[in-house]
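Bit of a strange request maybe. I'm writing a small parser for structure token strings and I need a real example to test against, not something I typed by hand. Could someone generate the tokens for this chain?
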Amino acid sequence: MDELTPLSDATLSDLPTGVKVPTYDRAALTPGIVHIGLGNFHRAHQAWYLHRLMQDGCARDWAILGAGVRPSDAAQRERLLAQDCLTTLIELDPSGTSAEVTGSMIGFVPVEEDNAALIAQMADPAIRIVSLTVTEGGYYLDPATGGFDAAHPDIRHDAEHPDTPRTAFGAMIAALRLRRGRGTGPFTGLSCDNLQGNGAILKQVVTSLARLSDPNLAAWIEETCTFPNSMVDCIVPATGPDEIALVRALGIDDAAPVTHENFRQWVIEDDFCAGRPDWDRAGATFSDRVHDYEAMKIRILNGGHQVIANAGEILSIGTISGCMEHPLIAAFFARVQAEEIAPHVKPVADMTPEAYVDLVSRRFANPAVVDTTRRVAFDGSSRHSGFIVPTIRDALAAGTPTEGLALVEALWARMCDGTREDGSAIAPNDPHWESLTAAAKAARSDPDVWLAQRQIYGDLGDDAGFASAFDRWLRRIWMHGTASALADYAGAHASQPTAG
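Reply from user aminoacidic:
Good idea to test on real output. This should exercise your parser:
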């Protein structure tokens, strides 16, 4: 292999021919956004839209400063600062890959236990948007009620020590306190996580936490700050040895490359109290119907991931595209979506639920996207409660079928036993793995135990019809295997292929 070119501002002109690079003067960029949670998704999605605007000569005063509140964020900071916060994005298209270096991020705030540097940066009046990707489970919601969890130890700490907060939300409040005192005005809080009503949830968490220590500040935040809802969509695998090998094969030494599918969508409410970039010029959509877009994506795509990932994990299928190649899983996915999920989703301006199911099926089946089953199955306690349970409730209220959805939950319960059908162990894959595994093992003889987890299911276990279907499916899976259950539901008669 030829010598690798280290990724940096100084070497952009030395990168291999065919790799797109920033054409704007990065030294002339000034920050306008602090983004908390600098993972792969943000760099492949929101940061890319801003980079595209900068390539067109726009938004030069909206550059991104990365930030984090977890100890692990410090390692990401070091990796990115070492390469001038540049990222190589590799698009995974079945017809071939392409690469682009993005430069819309220009710095990374020091990661500190008391978040002092982050607070100071967000208090700077140049910062007009604070955006977040902290995962669905990162918003301190009470799992039983869905409301703000004021009893969480981190929240109690921030309420008692508002000047030295542990959480991103406490840091936002501390910065807003400084801005109010200095008369520099509010900023917009922009959640980019897969939560329906993510802006409303972010507002609830910030104002509820502020109210615990400073009710007057909470009222000021509620009156002056805005928290637009948004829907984000792009499949972005985790970076591992294969992704590092891909970027090295291009001749680039990038310690934090990102791969992504050849599809992006971003729908945002146009509600920004301190201005915003013209993201729509780069393909984003500003709409007052974000909830409908959100519901379509969360129910069909995110919910669809949970439909197939648990079965794939049990059957030792390593990737999502591999799941879609399995005839029984593919047939299961198609029927559940058509009969039990899509009927409860509203169409949007340019897409029917049925057409979106077809689009998602093609995206999931893209063999170039090596999205691991394990990544998609991670944090099922948040994802099933957020992506599947609402559809179950809608179906029960409407009197429409829930057999397939009951099977989805039975497959998750089987997966949480911690073993695959080939006898191999499933490593812990949920923040609540220990309790889930205990419930899964108890449910093997008494399936009611699983649905009794009210922090996930609420009162769904009290619905006799749904509980009976779940009981029947879980017993069948344990007695006859996953393939038998899938074939029975999907009406498929194909024999189970060798999983790999």
